[in-house]
C-alpha cells in the first residue's frame, strides 16, 4: 500500500482540523496601540495608516472603552503633543497630552484592562530622536536615562499599569525600575522593547506621530542583520528587571521571537508595526488580499513563533473575528 503515511487524514474535515489545531490567538493576548493628539476636538485620520486615527481626548476614551469591551488585553498609548523641544519636556509634564490621557483612561477603565504608555522621547523632541542630544548631535545615553526616569514616574502617577520603554538606551530598564520603586510605584510593570530593530517598517508611524526626525536611529536601534545582539539585549533587560520583553517588528523577525521565547522566563510580546499594518491595508484596498484571513494568519504565525502577546493596530477588529 502506497502511500503509507497520509497526513491529509487529519485535515479531512473542519472538525478534524479544529481538533488538531496547535496554536490559538485570543483577544486577551492583543494590545491596541492608540494615538492621542493634543488640541483636537475630533479624531483625525492618519493618511498612511487607513483606519487608524489621531484621537482627541474624548474619542480616545470612547475607543479605548470599546476595545476593552471587544476583549483586548491592553491598550498602549502614544502622545502627539502640539509643541516639541530639545528635551521632550511635555513627556514628563503631568499636564502633557499623554499623561492627561492616561489619567482619563485610568479613571474610566480602572483595572479592567492593562493601560500601557510608550516611555520614549521621540514624540516630544523637536529633533525627533528618542533621547536628548550631546554637543555633537549624537544621542546622549546617560542624559536620556534621567529623562526616561522622570517620564516613567509621571506616567505611573498618571495611572499607567505598565510602561513600554522603546528608546533602546543602555540601562533604561534598570533606571526606570529604580525610579518607579523610589517613587512608590513598585507595582507598575515594565514591558521592555528589548530587541527593537532600526526598521523601514516604522515609516507610517513617523507620520502618525508627526515625527521631526531627520536621519535615522541606527546608533541605538538594532541592525536587522543581527540576531545575537537581540539575545544579549533580552537577557540584559530581564536582568535589569523587565516584567516582559518585546521583539519589534514582528513578521520579518519571527526567528527572533522564537529565540526570545526559548530563552525568556518572562512573557514575550511582539509588535506588528505600522508598516506591516499599512502594507496589508494597501493590498486589501486594491482587492489583492482578504483582510480577515490575512490578519488572522499573521497573528497566528506570531503566536506560533512563541509570542504570548501581540501589539497590533488590528487588535479591536481582530478581537471580534477571533471571538
Ligand atoms: C518610538 C517608537 C516607534 C514605534 C513605537 N515606538 C518608532 C520608532 O522607533 O521610530 C513604531 C511603531 C510602529 O511603527 O507601529 N517611540
Automatic annotation (TrEMBL):
Which terms does the record give in the GO molecular function aspect? Answer: porphobilinogen synthase activity
Xref: CDD domains? ALAD_PBGS (cd00384)
| Statement: the UniProt record of this protein carries the keyword Lipoprotein | no
Protein EC: 4.2.1.24
Role played = Catalyzes an early step in the biosynthesis of tetrapyrroles. Binds two molecules of 5-aminolevulinate per subunit, each at a distinct site, and catalyzes their condensation to form porphobilinogen.
Q: How does it assemble?
A: Homooctamer.
Name-wise, this protein is Delta-aminolevulinic acid dehydratase
Which species does this protein come from?
Answer: Haloechinothrix salitolerans
Amino acid at each position: 500500500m502506497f502511500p503509507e503515511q497520509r497526513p491529509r487524514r487529519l485535515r479531512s474535515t473542519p472538525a478534524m482540523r479544529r481538533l488538531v489545531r496547535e496554536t490559538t490567538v485570543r483577544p486577551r493576548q492583543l494590545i491596541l496601540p492608540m494615538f492621542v493628539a493634543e488640541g483636537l476636538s475630533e479624531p483625525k485620520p492618519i493618511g498612511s495608516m487607513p483606519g487608524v486615527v489621531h484621537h482627541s481626548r474624548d474619542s480616545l476614551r470612547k475607543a479605548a472603552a470599546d476595545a476593552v469591551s471587544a476583549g483586548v488585553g491592553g491598550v498602549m498609548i502614544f502622545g502627539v503633543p502640539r509643541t516639541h523641544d530639545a528635551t521632550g519636556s511635555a513627556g514628563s509634564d503631568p499636564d502633557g497630552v499623554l499623561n492627561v490621557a492616561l489619567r482619563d483612561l485610568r479613571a474610566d477603565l480602572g483595572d479592567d484592562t492593562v493601560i500601557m504608555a510608550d516611555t520614549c522621547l521621540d514624540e516630544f523632541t523637536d529633533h525627533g530622536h528618542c533621547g536628548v542630544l550631546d554637543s555633537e548631535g549624537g544621542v546622549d545615553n546617560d542624559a536620556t536615562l534621567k529623562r526616561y526616569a522622570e517620564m516613567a514616574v509621571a506616567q505611573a502617577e498618571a495611572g499607567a499599569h505598565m510602561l513600554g520603554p522603546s528608546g533602546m538606551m543602555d540601562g533604561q530598564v534598570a533606571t526606570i525600575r529604580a525610579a518607579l520603586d523610589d517613587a512608590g510605584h513598585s507595582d507598575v510593570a515594565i514591558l521592555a522593547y528589548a530587541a527593537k530593530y532600526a526598521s523601514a517598517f516604522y515609516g507610517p508611524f513617523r507620520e502618525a506621530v508627526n515625527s521631526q526626525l531627520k536621519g535615522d536611529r541606527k546608533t541605538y536601534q538594532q541592525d536587522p542583520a543581527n540576531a545575537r545582539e537581540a539575545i544579549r539585549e533580552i537577557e540584559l533587560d530581564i536582568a535589569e528587571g523587565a516584567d516582559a520583553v518585546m521583539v519589534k517588528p514582528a513578521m520579518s523577525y519571527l526567528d527572533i521571537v522564537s529565540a526570545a521565547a526559548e530563552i525568556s522566563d518572562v512573557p514575550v510580546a511582539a509588535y506588528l508595526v505600522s508598516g506591516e499594518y499599512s502594507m496589508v491595508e494597501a493590498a486589501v484596498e486594491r482587492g489583492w488580499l482578504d483582510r480577515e484571513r490575512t490578519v488572522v494568519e499573521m497573528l497566528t504565525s506570531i503566536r506560533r513563533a512563541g509570542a504570548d502577546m501581540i501589539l497590533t493596530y488590528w487588535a479591536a477588529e481582530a478581537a471580534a473575528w477571533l471571538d
